[in-house]
Amino acid sequence: MSTDDLRAIELLNRVRYGRVATSMRAMPFVAPARHIVRDDSFVLRMHRGMGYHRACSGSVVAYGADNFNTGEPDLWSVQFTGTANLIRPTDDELALFGPGPHHVDGEPFDAVYMSMTPQFATVHVLEYSSEQATAETTAETAGATGSGSGSRPRHDQHAA
Asked: Over the chain, what HEC string results?
């Protein structure tokens, strides 16, 4: 693996969730997934009820993650491209994942696991001065608390 590939894997190991993207019946989709890093590859956990694992298994997918909501001054985003394959995780891997959500979109969570060894990796780093980071964090906090103009409630679904 290249230095950039290793850096991307190291950054991925800092967060727990990302998004997998591929197409299903010629239509693109992006779905959240939980991941764990295994050396130069990783394992994804998704909710079986969404059915997205059927489109991913044996196909080329993109998997991306970032630290955009962490409050860190320098932001990064990583993306991996490779083939995903359904697997049965080891007991050690299951322990690393920890418990899943109780429900996804109102139905009981049913985990499905895929392994992905990236063929390509991309890292993007957004560097801010300390003044910019402070101003942006203040603005995001105001928006998150509803005190910003035009803020709307956020409705997250499909957690894995």
From this structure: CCHHHHHHHHHHCCCCEEEEEEEECCEEEEEEEEEEEECCEEEEEEEHHHCHHHHHECCEEEEEEECCCCCCCCEEEEEEEEEEEEECCCHHHHHHHCCCCCEECCEECCEEEEEEEEEEEEEEEECCCHHHHHHHHHHHHHHHCCCCCCCCCCCCCCCC
